[in-house]
């Protein structure tokens, strides 16, 4: 069984991968065939839609990266971890916590929650 932090790191690597074909391969390795993703702003119901969400994040936030803020915590098929998102080499501007359902060591569903957003100007 893969440890929780390794699974969370693979997930973060997908969001940071700029190469389209490499990203598709990472998604295929990390996510089950039937999978879903939802957070307060986005939803995806399969691997292709997940890929589209990650592509949109790269386009909307060039130069931003995700980082793992906490180690993964696994209980059976449940996983949680916290992440940050912001410019490279800077304190994350956005922080969140994701909860995942696993099938073996692969992601079946991820539910994302936003913990911190920048203050409105």
TrEMBL record:
Taxonomic superkingdom: Bacteria
Matching SUPFAM superfamilies: NTF2-like (SSF54427)
Protein name: Nuclear transport factor 2 family protein
